[in-house]
Amino acid sequence: MKLLCRILTLSLVLLLPAARVSAHAFLEHSDPPVGGKVHSAPAAVRIWFTEAIEPASSSLQVFDAAGKQVDKKDTHLDRSNRSLLQVSLPPLGPGTYKVVWRVVSLDTHVTKGDFRFQVAP
Amino acid sequence: MCALGATSRAYGHGFAGARFFPATLSTDDPFVADELSLPTVSTIRTPDDGGTRETDISVELAKRITPQFGIEIGETLSVLNPHEGQTMNGFGNLELGGKYQLLKNGPHEAIVSVGLDVEIGGTGSNSIGADSFSTWSPAIFFGKGFGDLPEALRFLKPVALTGVAGIAIPTSASTRSITVNDQTGERDIEIEQHPDVLEWGFALEYSVIYLQSQVQDMHLPAPIDRLIPLVEFALETPLNRGACGPTTGTINPGVIWAGKYFQVGVEAVVPINEHTGNNVGVIAQLHFFLDDLFPHTIGLPLFGGTK
Question: Which pTM does this prediction carry?
Answer without folding.
Answer: 0.89
